[in-house]
Amino acid sequence: MGELRESKKRATRQRISDVATALFYERGFDAVTVEEIAAAANVSKVTVFNYFARKEDLMLDREHEVQALLSQALRDKAKGQTAVAALRALVEQLREQKHPFVRIDDGIATWWRVVIASASLKARLREIGDEAVEALALELAGRKAGGEARLLAGMVVLAWRTAYAESLRSFERGASTKKADSTFAALIERGLAAAEALEKSAA
Amino acid sequence: MGELRESKKRATRQRISDVATALFYERGFDAVTVEEIAAAANVSKVTVFNYFARKEDLMLDREHEVQALLSQALRDKAKGQTAVAALRALVEQLREQKHPFVRIDDGIATWWRVVIASASLKARLREIGDEAVEALALELAGRKAGGEARLLAGMVVLAWRTAYAESLRSFERGASTKKADSTFAALIERGLAAAEALEKSAA
DNA sequence: GACTAACTTTAACCAAGTATAATTTTTGTG
DNA sequence: CACAAAAATTATACTTGGTTAAAGTTAGTC
User: What pLDDT sits at residue B144?
Assistant: First the structure.
Protein backbone atom coordinates (compact mmCIF):
# COMPACT_ATOMS: atom_id res chain seq x y z
CA MET A 1 0.00 0.00 0.00
CA GLY A 2 1.47 3.27 -1.12
CA GLU A 3 4.85 1.79 -1.91
CA LEU A 4 5.38 3.40 -5.29
CA ARG A 5 4.30 6.75 -3.91
CA GLU A 6 6.64 6.45 -0.94
CA SER A 7 9.61 5.46 -3.03
CA LYS A 8 8.96 8.28 -5.46
CA LYS A 9 8.93 10.73 -2.59
CA ARG A 10 12.13 9.33 -1.20
CA ALA A 11 13.72 9.63 -4.63
CA THR A 12 12.53 13.21 -5.07
CA ARG A 13 13.79 14.23 -1.67
CA GLN A 14 17.15 12.63 -2.35
CA ARG A 15 17.39 14.22 -5.78
CA ILE A 16 16.71 17.68 -4.37
CA SER A 17 19.23 17.16 -1.61
CA ASP A 18 21.91 15.86 -3.98
CA VAL A 19 21.43 18.59 -6.53
CA ALA A 20 21.47 21.25 -3.81
CA THR A 21 24.59 19.90 -2.18
CA ALA A 22 26.41 19.78 -5.48
CA LEU A 23 25.51 23.40 -6.20
CA PHE A 24 26.51 24.53 -2.71
CA TYR A 25 29.90 22.85 -3.02
CA GLU A 26 30.38 24.48 -6.38
CA ARG A 27 29.45 28.05 -5.60
CA GLY A 28 28.79 28.37 -1.88
CA PHE A 29 25.55 28.25 0.07
CA ASP A 30 24.56 31.89 -0.22
CA ALA A 31 25.23 32.19 -3.92
CA VAL A 32 22.76 29.46 -4.84
CA THR A 33 19.06 30.31 -4.89
CA VAL A 34 16.26 27.92 -4.07
CA GLU A 35 14.85 28.62 -7.51
CA GLU A 36 18.01 27.28 -9.09
CA ILE A 37 17.95 24.19 -6.95
CA ALA A 38 14.34 23.58 -7.86
CA ALA A 39 15.03 23.98 -11.57
CA ALA A 40 18.06 21.70 -11.42
CA ALA A 41 16.02 19.06 -9.61
CA ASN A 42 13.09 19.38 -12.04
CA VAL A 43 10.73 20.46 -9.37
CA SER A 44 9.02 23.66 -8.27
CA LYS A 45 10.25 25.94 -5.53
CA VAL A 46 7.24 25.09 -3.39
CA THR A 47 8.13 21.42 -3.56
CA VAL A 48 11.64 22.12 -2.31
CA PHE A 49 10.15 23.86 0.72
CA ASN A 50 7.69 21.02 1.05
CA TYR A 51 10.58 18.64 1.72
CA PHE A 52 12.93 21.01 3.51
CA ALA A 53 11.40 23.60 5.77
CA ARG A 54 14.27 26.00 5.29
CA LYS A 55 17.07 26.35 2.83
CA GLU A 56 19.59 25.60 5.57
CA ASP A 57 18.14 22.15 6.10
CA LEU A 58 19.25 21.18 2.62
CA MET A 59 22.76 21.21 4.03
CA LEU A 60 22.22 20.42 7.70
CA ASP A 61 19.72 17.62 7.40
CA ARG A 62 21.81 15.10 9.31
CA GLU A 63 22.88 17.36 12.14
CA HIS A 64 19.64 16.78 14.00
CA GLU A 65 20.85 13.27 14.75
CA VAL A 66 23.21 14.33 17.54
CA GLN A 67 20.19 14.99 19.68
CA ALA A 68 18.84 11.48 19.23
CA LEU A 69 22.24 9.96 19.89
CA LEU A 70 22.66 11.86 23.14
CA SER A 71 19.18 11.03 24.38
CA GLN A 72 19.51 7.38 23.45
CA ALA A 73 22.84 7.09 25.24
CA LEU A 74 21.22 8.36 28.41
CA ARG A 75 18.33 5.97 28.12
CA ASP A 76 20.74 3.08 27.67
CA LYS A 77 22.90 4.09 30.60
CA ALA A 78 23.58 1.44 33.22
CA LYS A 79 22.30 1.91 36.75
CA GLY A 80 24.91 3.55 38.93
CA GLN A 81 26.79 4.99 35.97
CA THR A 82 26.89 8.78 35.90
CA ALA A 83 25.15 10.48 32.98
CA VAL A 84 28.41 11.98 31.84
CA ALA A 85 30.07 8.58 31.89
CA ALA A 86 27.35 7.29 29.60
CA LEU A 87 27.92 10.18 27.22
CA ARG A 88 31.65 9.61 27.33
CA ALA A 89 31.02 6.01 26.33
CA LEU A 90 28.87 7.22 23.42
CA VAL A 91 31.66 9.45 22.18
CA GLU A 92 34.10 6.56 22.49
CA GLN A 93 31.80 4.32 20.51
CA LEU A 94 31.33 6.88 17.77
CA ARG A 95 35.06 7.37 17.51
CA GLU A 96 35.52 3.64 17.03
CA GLN A 97 33.04 3.58 14.18
CA LYS A 98 34.62 6.71 12.69
CA HIS A 99 31.34 8.57 12.83
CA PRO A 100 31.46 12.00 11.13
CA PHE A 101 30.28 13.71 14.32
CA VAL A 102 33.58 12.95 15.99
CA ARG A 103 35.93 12.66 13.07
CA ILE A 104 37.41 14.71 10.28
CA ASP A 105 38.75 13.75 6.89
CA ASP A 106 39.06 15.58 3.60
CA GLY A 107 35.45 15.05 2.61
CA ILE A 108 34.14 16.23 5.94
CA ALA A 109 36.47 19.21 6.02
CA THR A 110 35.25 20.25 2.58
CA TRP A 111 31.66 20.07 3.80
CA TRP A 112 32.54 22.20 6.80
CA ARG A 113 34.22 24.80 4.66
CA VAL A 114 30.91 25.37 2.91
CA VAL A 115 29.09 25.62 6.22
CA ILE A 116 31.57 27.96 7.84
CA ALA A 117 31.48 30.33 4.89
CA SER A 118 27.78 30.96 5.47
CA ALA A 119 26.42 33.02 8.35
CA SER A 120 22.96 31.56 8.02
CA LEU A 121 24.21 27.98 8.12
CA LYS A 122 26.21 28.75 11.24
CA ALA A 123 23.15 30.32 12.80
CA ARG A 124 21.04 27.28 12.08
CA LEU A 125 23.76 25.10 13.53
CA ARG A 126 23.69 27.07 16.75
CA GLU A 127 19.95 26.64 16.87
CA ILE A 128 20.25 22.88 16.45
CA GLY A 129 22.82 22.86 19.22
CA ASP A 130 20.45 24.65 21.56
CA GLU A 131 17.71 22.19 20.75
CA ALA A 132 20.08 19.39 21.63
CA VAL A 133 20.86 21.04 24.96
CA GLU A 134 17.19 21.32 25.79
CA ALA A 135 16.49 17.72 24.81
CA LEU A 136 19.45 16.49 26.78
CA ALA A 137 18.47 18.53 29.83
CA LEU A 138 15.02 17.01 29.67
CA GLU A 139 16.45 13.55 29.53
CA LEU A 140 18.77 14.29 32.41
CA ALA A 141 16.07 15.67 34.64
CA GLY A 142 13.27 13.28 33.90
CA ARG A 143 10.10 15.21 33.19
CA LYS A 144 11.02 18.91 33.36
CA ALA A 145 14.49 20.31 33.08
CA GLY A 146 15.82 22.59 35.81
CA GLY A 147 18.76 24.93 35.83
CA GLU A 148 21.21 22.35 37.04
CA ALA A 149 20.25 19.92 34.27
CA ARG A 150 20.43 22.65 31.65
CA LEU A 151 23.86 23.67 32.83
CA LEU A 152 25.12 20.13 32.69
CA ALA A 153 23.59 19.53 29.27
CA GLY A 154 25.05 22.81 28.08
CA MET A 155 28.49 21.80 29.22
CA VAL A 156 28.35 18.49 27.39
CA VAL A 157 27.26 20.08 24.13
CA LEU A 158 29.79 22.86 24.59
CA ALA A 159 32.57 20.35 25.09
CA TRP A 160 31.56 18.52 21.95
CA ARG A 161 31.24 21.64 19.81
CA THR A 162 34.46 23.15 21.06
CA ALA A 163 36.48 19.96 20.71
CA TYR A 164 35.14 19.40 17.22
CA ALA A 165 35.79 22.96 16.12
CA GLU A 166 39.32 22.87 17.46
CA SER A 167 39.97 19.54 15.81
CA LEU A 168 38.74 20.93 12.51
CA ARG A 169 40.95 23.99 12.84
CA SER A 170 43.96 21.78 13.44
CA PHE A 171 43.07 19.66 10.40
CA GLU A 172 42.80 22.78 8.29
CA ARG A 173 46.22 23.88 9.47
CA GLY A 174 47.60 20.64 8.09
CA ALA A 175 47.18 18.06 10.82
CA SER A 176 46.36 14.48 9.82
CA THR A 177 43.03 12.84 10.56
CA LYS A 178 44.79 10.97 13.33
CA LYS A 179 46.23 14.10 14.89
CA ALA A 180 42.91 15.90 14.58
CA ASP A 181 41.24 12.97 16.28
CA SER A 182 43.56 13.13 19.25
CA THR A 183 42.98 16.87 19.53
CA PHE A 184 39.28 16.16 19.62
CA ALA A 185 39.66 13.40 22.21
CA ALA A 186 41.82 15.46 24.53
CA LEU A 187 39.62 18.53 24.48
CA ILE A 188 36.28 16.79 24.81
CA GLU A 189 37.68 14.85 27.74
CA ARG A 190 38.63 18.12 29.41
CA GLY A 191 35.08 19.32 29.01
CA LEU A 192 33.48 16.05 30.05
CA ALA A 193 35.66 15.85 33.14
CA ALA A 194 34.47 19.30 34.16
CA ALA A 195 30.89 18.23 33.51
CA GLU A 196 31.39 15.09 35.53
CA ALA A 197 32.73 17.08 38.46
CA LEU A 198 29.64 19.25 38.28
CA GLU A 199 27.35 16.26 38.13
CA LYS A 200 28.98 14.56 41.09
CA SER A 201 28.81 17.68 43.21
CA ALA A 202 25.09 18.17 42.53
CA ALA A 203 23.01 19.04 45.55
CA MET B 1 32.94 71.11 14.52
CA GLY B 2 30.04 68.99 13.40
CA GLU B 3 28.24 69.18 16.72
CA LEU B 4 24.79 69.92 15.34
CA ARG B 5 25.16 67.09 12.88
CA GLU B 6 26.21 64.63 15.56
CA SER B 7 23.41 65.51 17.90
CA LYS B 8 20.85 65.30 15.14
CA LYS B 9 22.08 61.87 14.26
CA ARG B 10 21.93 60.77 17.85
CA ALA B 11 18.38 62.07 18.07
CA THR B 12 17.34 60.29 14.89
CA ARG B 13 18.86 57.04 16.02
CA GLN B 14 17.14 57.31 19.36
CA ARG B 15 13.82 58.19 17.79
CA ILE B 16 13.96 55.16 15.50
CA SER B 17 14.92 52.91 18.37
CA ASP B 18 12.17 54.24 20.65
CA VAL B 19 9.47 54.05 18.02
CA ALA B 20 10.54 50.53 17.07
CA THR B 21 10.63 49.32 20.64
CA ALA B 22 7.17 50.70 21.32
CA LEU B 23 5.79 48.93 18.27
CA PHE B 24 7.49 45.66 19.17
CA TYR B 25 6.08 45.75 22.68
CA GLU B 26 2.67 46.44 21.26
CA ARG B 27 2.43 43.81 18.58
CA GLY B 28 5.49 41.57 18.76
CA PHE B 29 8.75 41.71 16.85
CA ASP B 30 7.74 39.68 13.82
CA ALA B 31 4.43 41.43 13.28
CA VAL B 32 6.06 44.85 12.83
CA THR B 33 7.68 45.67 9.50
CA VAL B 34 10.66 47.92 9.02
CA GLU B 35 8.53 50.03 6.72
CA GLU B 36 6.13 50.73 9.54
CA ILE B 37 8.92 51.66 11.88
CA ALA B 38 10.37 54.00 9.29
CA ALA B 39 7.02 55.67 8.72
CA ALA B 40 6.36 56.05 12.44
CA ALA B 41 9.80 57.62 12.92
CA ASN B 42 9.40 59.96 9.93
CA VAL B 43 12.30 58.46 8.13
CA SER B 44 12.83 56.19 5.14
CA LYS B 45 13.42 52.45 5.34
CA VAL B 46 16.94 52.92 4.04
CA THR B 47 17.72 55.27 6.90
CA VAL B 48 16.57 52.70 9.43
CA PHE B 49 19.01 50.21 7.95
CA ASN B 50 21.61 52.92 7.88
CA TYR B 51 21.50 53.11 11.67
CA PHE B 52 20.74 49.48 12.45
CA ALA B 53 22.32 46.87 10.23
CA ARG B 54 19.55 44.39 10.86
CA LYS B 55 16.06 44.56 12.21
CA GLU B 56 17.10 42.50 15.24
CA ASP B 57 19.55 45.16 16.34
CA LEU B 58 16.66 47.53 16.94
CA MET B 59 15.87 45.34 19.92
CA LEU B 60 19.23 43.91 20.87
CA ASP B 61 21.37 47.00 20.59
CA ARG B 62 22.66 46.87 24.14
CA GLU B 63 23.41 43.17 24.28
CA HIS B 64 26.76 43.67 22.61
CA GLU B 65 27.99 45.26 25.81
CA VAL B 66 28.48 41.96 27.65
CA GLN B 67 31.47 41.33 25.48
CA ALA B 68 33.13 44.58 26.45
CA LEU B 69 32.38 44.01 30.12
CA LEU B 70 33.95 40.57 30.07
CA SER B 71 37.06 41.68 28.24
CA GLN B 72 37.51 44.72 30.46
CA ALA B 73 37.22 42.62 33.61
CA LEU B 74 40.03 40.40 32.37
CA ARG B 75 42.22 43.34 31.53
CA ASP B 76 41.65 44.76 35.00
CA LYS B 77 42.37 41.50 36.74
CA ALA B 78 44.99 41.55 39.49
CA LYS B 79 48.19 39.56 39.06
CA GLY B 80 47.84 36.14 40.60
CA GLN B 81 44.06 36.19 40.46
CA THR B 82 42.55 33.53 38.23
CA ALA B 83 40.63 34.71 35.20
CA VAL B 84 37.47 33.12 36.49
CA ALA B 85 37.88 34.90 39.81
CA ALA B 86 38.06 38.20 37.97
CA LEU B 87 34.87 37.37 36.09
CA ARG B 88 33.17 36.33 39.28
CA ALA B 89 34.07 39.71 40.72
CA LEU B 90 32.55 41.39 37.67
CA VAL B 91 29.30 39.52 38.16
CA GLU B 92 29.28 40.50 41.82
CA GLN B 93 29.84 44.11 40.93
CA LEU B 94 27.05 44.12 38.36
CA ARG B 95 24.68 42.56 40.85
CA GLU B 96 25.45 45.31 43.32
CA GLN B 97 24.63 47.98 40.79
CA LYS B 98 21.50 46.06 39.76
CA HIS B 99 22.66 45.86 36.17
CA PRO B 100 20.04 44.41 33.77
CA PHE B 101 22.49 41.73 32.62
CA VAL B 102 22.27 40.05 36.00
CA ARG B 103 18.91 41.14 37.27
CA ILE B 104 15.24 40.81 36.49
CA ASP B 105 12.28 43.02 37.26
CA ASP B 106 8.93 43.58 35.58
CA GLY B 107 10.29 45.89 32.92
CA ILE B 108 13.10 43.54 32.02
CA ALA B 109 10.84 40.51 32.02
CA THR B 110 8.50 42.27 29.62
CA TRP B 111 11.37 42.99 27.30
CA TRP B 112 12.42 39.35 27.43
CA ARG B 113 8.93 38.16 26.63
CA VAL B 114 9.15 40.05 23.35
CA VAL B 115 12.55 38.57 22.61
CA ILE B 116 11.62 35.01 23.46
CA ALA B 117 8.55 35.13 21.26
CA SER B 118 10.71 35.70 18.20
CA ALA B 119 12.87 33.02 16.62
CA SER B 120 15.01 35.54 14.77
CA LEU B 121 15.73 37.55 17.93
CA LYS B 122 16.76 34.40 19.74
CA ALA B 123 19.00 33.49 16.84
CA ARG B 124 20.69 36.87 16.89
CA LEU B 125 21.16 36.52 20.63
CA ARG B 126 22.93 33.20 20.17
CA GLU B 127 25.18 34.83 17.61
CA ILE B 128 26.07 37.64 19.99
CA GLY B 129 26.82 35.04 22.64
CA ASP B 130 29.22 33.24 20.33
CA GLU B 131 30.97 36.48 19.52
CA ALA B 132 31.39 37.06 23.23
CA VAL B 133 32.92 33.61 23.63
CA GLU B 134 35.40 34.27 20.87
CA ALA B 135 36.36 37.67 22.27
CA LEU B 136 36.73 36.27 25.73
CA ALA B 137 38.83 33.35 24.51
CA LEU B 138 41.10 35.79 22.75
CA GLU B 139 41.51 37.82 25.89
CA LEU B 140 42.21 34.69 27.90
CA ALA B 141 44.84 33.37 25.58
CA GLY B 142 46.65 36.54 24.67
CA ARG B 143 47.11 36.74 20.94
CA LYS B 144 45.38 33.69 19.42
CA ALA B 145 42.79 31.58 21.17
CA GLY B 146 43.32 27.83 21.48
CA GLY B 147 40.89 25.08 22.33
CA GLU B 148 41.46 25.29 26.04
CA ALA B 149 40.76 29.02 26.10
CA ARG B 150 37.66 28.60 23.97
CA LEU B 151 36.35 25.91 26.25
CA LEU B 152 36.88 28.04 29.30
CA ALA B 153 35.31 31.07 27.66
CA GLY B 154 32.42 28.93 26.52
CA MET B 155 31.83 27.69 30.03
CA VAL B 156 31.71 31.19 31.46
CA VAL B 157 29.23 32.42 28.88
CA LEU B 158 27.20 29.24 29.25
CA ALA B 159 27.03 29.69 33.00
CA TRP B 160 25.84 33.25 32.55
CA ARG B 161 23.25 32.45 29.93
CA THR B 162 21.93 29.44 31.77
CA ALA B 163 21.75 31.17 35.13
CA TYR B 164 20.02 34.16 33.61
CA ALA B 165 17.51 32.05 31.70
CA GLU B 166 16.69 30.00 34.76
CA SER B 167 16.32 33.11 36.86
CA LEU B 168 13.93 34.56 34.29
CA ARG B 169 11.90 31.37 34.21
CA SER B 170 11.56 31.48 37.98
CA PHE B 171 10.50 35.11 37.83
CA GLU B 172 7.88 34.28 35.24
CA ARG B 173 6.57 31.53 37.49
CA GLY B 174 5.96 34.16 40.12
CA ALA B 175 9.21 34.50 42.02
CA SER B 176 10.21 37.93 43.32
CA THR B 177 13.14 39.90 41.96
CA LYS B 178 15.01 38.92 45.08
CA LYS B 179 14.29 35.22 44.67
CA ALA B 180 15.16 35.35 40.97
CA ASP B 181 18.41 37.04 41.89
CA SER B 182 19.39 34.28 44.28
CA THR B 183 18.53 31.66 41.66
CA PHE B 184 20.84 33.48 39.30
CA ALA B 185 23.60 33.75 41.87
CA ALA B 186 23.48 30.10 42.85
CA LEU B 187 23.49 28.76 39.31
CA ILE B 188 26.16 31.04 37.90
CA GLU B 189 28.35 30.14 40.85
CA ARG B 190 27.91 26.46 40.02
CA GLY B 191 29.08 27.16 36.49
CA LEU B 192 31.91 29.45 37.49
CA ALA B 193 33.16 26.93 40.01
CA ALA B 194 33.32 24.31 37.27
CA ALA B 195 35.13 26.77 35.03
CA GLU B 196 37.56 27.61 37.79
CA ALA B 197 38.34 23.93 38.33
CA LEU B 198 39.06 23.64 34.63
CA GLU B 199 41.26 26.70 34.65
CA LYS B 200 43.29 25.54 37.63
CA SER B 201 43.84 22.10 36.14
CA ALA B 202 45.13 23.53 32.86
CA ALA B 203 48.19 21.83 31.45
C1' DG C 1 -12.89 2.91 -14.93
C1' DA C 2 -14.47 6.33 -11.62
C1' DC C 3 -13.42 8.37 -7.19
C1' DT C 4 -10.56 10.34 -3.63
C1' DA C 5 -6.67 11.59 -1.16
C1' DA C 6 -1.98 12.93 -1.57
C1' DC C 7 1.34 15.42 -4.07
C1' DT C 8 2.81 19.07 -7.26
C1' DT C 9 2.49 23.23 -9.75
C1' DT C 10 1.42 27.97 -10.90
C1' DA C 11 1.03 32.43 -9.62
C1' DA C 12 0.68 36.03 -6.64
C1' DC C 13 2.26 37.84 -2.57
C1' DC C 14 5.10 39.62 1.69
C1' DA C 15 9.12 41.39 4.07
C1' DA C 16 14.18 41.93 4.88
C1' DG C 17 17.85 43.64 2.96
C1' DT C 18 20.87 45.77 -0.94
C1' DA C 19 22.28 48.88 -4.67
C1' DT C 20 22.12 53.14 -6.97
C1' DA C 21 21.43 57.53 -8.21
C1' DA C 22 19.20 61.78 -7.12
C1' DT C 23 18.28 65.17 -3.59
C1' DT C 24 18.64 67.64 0.65
C1' DT C 25 21.19 69.23 4.66
C1' DT C 26 25.25 70.64 7.05
C1' DT C 27 29.74 72.29 7.26
C1' DG C 28 33.93 74.73 6.44
C1' DT C 29 36.02 78.26 3.78
C1' DG C 30 36.93 82.40 1.07
C1' DC D 1 27.08 85.73 2.90
C1' DA D 2 27.90 82.62 -0.76
C1' DC D 3 29.33 78.42 -2.30
C1' DA D 4 31.42 74.02 -2.93
C1' DA D 5 32.52 69.68 -0.67
C1' DA D 6 30.99 66.21 2.41
C1' DA D 7 27.57 63.74 4.70
C1' DA D 8 22.98 62.18 5.31
C1' DT D 9 18.54 61.05 3.45
C1' DT D 10 15.44 59.79 -0.01
C1' DA D 11 12.93 57.32 -3.83
C1' DT D 12 13.09 53.50 -6.55
C1' DA D 13 13.90 49.19 -8.14
C1' DC D 14 15.57 44.70 -7.30
C1' DT D 15 16.74 40.04 -5.13
C1' DT D 16 15.56 36.24 -2.38
C1' DG D 17 13.54 33.22 1.22
C1' DG D 18 9.35 31.89 2.50
C1' DT D 19 3.94 31.59 2.46
C1' DT D 20 -0.66 30.94 0.63
C1' DA D 21 -4.49 29.57 -2.26
C1' DA D 22 -6.27 27.42 -6.15
C1' DA D 23 -5.92 24.39 -9.93
C1' DG D 24 -3.75 20.31 -11.91
C1' DT D 25 -1.77 15.56 -11.67
C1' DT D 26 -1.12 10.92 -10.10
C1' DA D 27 -1.35 6.73 -7.08
C1' DG D 28 -4.28 3.72 -4.64
C1' DT D 29 -9.03 1.97 -3.83
C1' DC D 30 -13.74 0.35 -4.67
Answer: 64
